[in-house]
Amino acid sequence: MKFRKAIKNDISKIVEMIADDELGKERENFKNPLPDSYLNAFEKIDSDQNQELIVVENDNLEIIGTLQLTFIQYLTYQGGVRAQIEAVRIRKDQRGLGLGKTMFKWAIERAKTRKAHLLQLTTDKKRPEAIKFYEALGFKDSHEGMKMHFTNS
Length: 153
Hints:
alpha+beta, Aminopeptidase, 5 strands, 35% helix, globular
């Protein structure tokens, strides 16, 4: 298994994985060709040193997983860095094989390498299995998150 930074040619496979679950189907627009919004987002992510879009490849160099790490510099914690993990997805035929745990172990070590003092995530309350998985990895339910969605005009 190999972890590497995503390249432009990976975006279609990444979006396919993001769209391939109950909630992703509702909010993503996976089609060929991909809408420009995904490619534009990739360009911004790729050019930002505090963003790491990662793909996981198997021995056949097939993309079987993805995650995004964001490193947030702030003033609290004496000018600390916080790592945020998002969009963790595993290809459907690879789920249940332990890949998620391996991906999180890699992300935890990467966050430590970047001198983050914590790794945080959010998960939809509609995903109770994911919440149990994160708790088993050592994540603690420490805050109540809130969101405000905007419509794009």
